[in-house]
Amino acid sequence: MAQSYKDTMNLPKTDFPMRGNLPINEPKRLDKWNEMDIYKQVLDKNKDGEPFVLHDGPPYANGPIHLGHAFNKILKDFVVKSKAQQGYYTPYIPGWDCHGQPIEHKVETDLGPEKMSKIDTPTLRKICREYAEKFVDVQRDGFKRLGVNADWEHPYLTIHKNYESGNVEIFKKMYLDGAIYRGRKPIHWCKHCHTALAEAEIEYGDEISPSIFVNFKMDKVPDCFDVDELYVLIWTTTPWTLPANTAVSLAPQAEYCVVSADGKNMLMARDLVEEVAEAAGWDKYEILDGVCTGRDLEGYTYTCPIRQDLKGTIIWGDHVTLDSGTGAVHTAPGHGVDDYLVGQKFNIPVLMPVDDNGVLTDEAGEFAGLDVDDANPKIIEWLKKQGVLVAHVDISHSYPHCWRCHEPVIFRATDQWFVDMDKTHLRQDAKAAIDNDVEFIPDWAKNRIGSMVEERPDWCISRQRSWGVPLPVFKCSKCGETVANAETFDAVIKLFEEKGSDAWFTTDPKDYLPPVKCQNCGCEEVEPERDILDVWWESGVSHTSVLKHRESEGLHFPAEMYLEGSDQHRGWFQSSLLTSIGAYGTAPYKQVMHCGFIVDGEGKKQSKSKGNVVAPDEVMDKFGADVLRLWVSSVDYSQDVGIDKEILQRITDAYRKIRNSFRFLLGNLYDFSNDDFVDELLPIDSWMLAKTAKLLDDVTENFDKYSFHNIFRSTFNFINNELSSIYMNVAKDRLYSDAADSYNRRSAQTVLANVLEVLVRILSPILSFTCEEVWEHYPEGMKSDIESVQLAGWPELKDFMPKVNMDAIDEFESALELRDAVTKALEDKGIRQSQAVKLIITMPDEPKFDKSVYEELFIVSSVEFKQGDLAIEIEDADGEKCPRCWNYRNLNNDGVCDRCSEVL
Hints:
Layout: H1 2-8, H2 22-36, H3 38-45, E1 54-55, H4 67-85, E2 95-96, H5 101-118, H6 121-145, E3 156-157, H7 161-176, E4 180-190, E5 195-197, E6 202-218, E7 231-236, E8 247-250, E9 255-261, E10 264-269, H8 273-280, E11 286-287, E12 292-293, E13 301-303, E14 311-316, E15 328-331, H9 337-345, H10 372-386, E16 389-402, E17 410-419, H11 426-436, E18 439-441, H12 445-455, E19 459-460, E20 462-463, E21 474-476, E22 482-483, H13 486-499, E23 526-528, E24 532-533, H14 535-540, H15 542-548, E25 559-565, H16 572-584, E26 589-595, E27 598-599, H17 616-622, H18 625-634, E28 641-642, H19 645-667, H20 683-704, H21 708-737, H22 743-762, H23 768-776, H24 808-811, H25 813-828, E29 837-843, H26 851-858, E30 862-867, E31 871-876, E32 880-881, E33 888-889, H27 898-903
Parallel strand pairs: 1-25, 2-3, 7-10, 8-14, 18-26, 25-26, 27-28, 29-30
Antiparallel strand pairs: 4-5, 4-17, 6-7, 6-13, 6-16, 8-15, 9-10, 9-11, 9-12, 13-14, 17-19, 20-24, 21-22, 21-23, 29-31, 32-33
């Protein structure tokens, strides 16, 4: 008998499986999207829509994708897909950075020193190109597997000819405007990679360095001190730079005094005497009469013990602080930016006794031939023997390292090419664009990039490497003067467009340059510059090489958005801004959005040695790409985000809840069609429809604000709490037990159909694979000719059937509050099967709805209301359990309740 009743029920029917088996099924949907060319179809559908260009920042093509790549690309996919769903025209051209030291470094390592010593530049560049192209393919497959929509067959690569020519276009404009110059000043130098480094290529880590206090004998004692002989006690943490010393810098307003200790008179800042005495281990010392400010001591000379053939000068600078040391700072303008700048102010010479390998030259005297690291202990020992070393302690401090080899870098003055930040008002104009023209997401990032631009030195754009775009100028073969003008630049642009930048290394300039003449000596022979451009310059000019060069493909300048990691405020965001302001006077983007870094569940940096690395392919092989995408949507991307097995398990649980809710919706709409919508809804149905409309408003607003974690939160709360815990539980009885075409059942199905239409569309940018699967399993009566949910558009309030009554949310609130009280009362009595009870509810106000509404909402046999203070009485239900619907009712002669009898 039970079986026959089951056959009379409207139980859910759908082929949509409970388990997604995503690792197996997602690739099938990728094949489908590829066959139908979903990227092009979306563009065709929205061809008349408002353009929205998210310009892809190029990752390095030097290995498989890691979780940071996946995080970044999925966020971009959220933006692009949500805009496309809303009707925007969204061309998205992925890119790769194929030049630069990371790839060249890897190729050098693979080849080994012997082969590298014999290889010529064109051959090395050919191997680097092949390496880059290999990993472009590897990474492209990885990004596709994530479900990211893009023009994958036509990406931009920085090794493409028309991309390389864009570098020269921007260089030409800025050089001719006077913003680019060649100069000799200290820059970060990697002695292992043999190249200059920009600030964006520096990472910081702790190093142990020697902090030493050394006496420099002054040639004359200042009048304010009454002593016969005087030393200025200097302080430094880089003893290896002492052979380049040409000055000692003091704090201009600080008071300096003479301290007598160990038989010597030493000049130092008065405020640091006690600290120096402790470091030196003086048991007794005396502060002598007399005081001078740092500014008063300007111009006095001394003899540096290491370079006794040279006289140094005492100067002053605002960079000198009294936080530590002696207040008298060893100054070597060839080895530091502050030293260089203060040296320029006082016309102090620049010495550079260190070569490209980080080895001291003959200028360093007896220390010549020593690596700078090896020189430190040797110099300290020598100073000790000379009797001028007052103190030596080792300190741990943050120190710049090369981003590729991770070794400490040095500062050294070399001839390099620079972008002048101030001559053409580049700094000022860039800061104005940051403050006034660009929206930063999150907003506080404006201050971050703003302060970086405000404080940065001139940009060193030359690199002493082989794998990159050549710096497009020439040198006079006779005198070495730079030869560059509009005509030479145009010739190089044409060369690169036709043959690529490899031709720079294989083609004689005579074959592509117009007649040239050195303005200095009149020589007509030139040689091409051998330095290459900084890779940040190269990626930065993508606004021209991609946005402008590919306008025929729907791109435009400026782009609506750049989206990359938070480190790009000193990298790609900034290089793009500076080159765009320098060439066009405007920012290349309207919005800049950044994402944080990936850490483990405890907030620690992921590393292979710690065993806490989560690889995207491992996640997809076990859970599927949609679980990874759901995780991305759940976190505040503006901060560093954590992931581990426990976090992934929680996300998997959330995914199952969402999937099973979709399954419920599909299963209960198997016999519903677009002709079955009802015009008037039952009260709880009206409430659920209004909550769905509110969810749509919230999600639309948060997509517009790119607040994806709030979309996850509001959508999951809606599904888990309002849809599943309340509505689906309540509506099951009507859906399963009422007559198939009854008004009550159709009212519930009307709501479910609206919920399905909204959820499948608003979640499609996030759960792209699952929503496509839902779309494929749509009930026959609701299917359309639209092949993919990505072509279905964004739901709107006007599309809801019937018209939404938003007041239903407030109107139903009191009923839900009463439900909470009923639930607590049932739990307090340990009652789990509420169908077996009846309620007698005393409350101050008259119930707003018919008691049948409350009976359904509370899932009880019956409800009686009385007036008075709130009280809930629970009694056993009258009647018996209906064998068909399991509700407790008075059964009729058919052995079932009246409702079921009528249905049967």
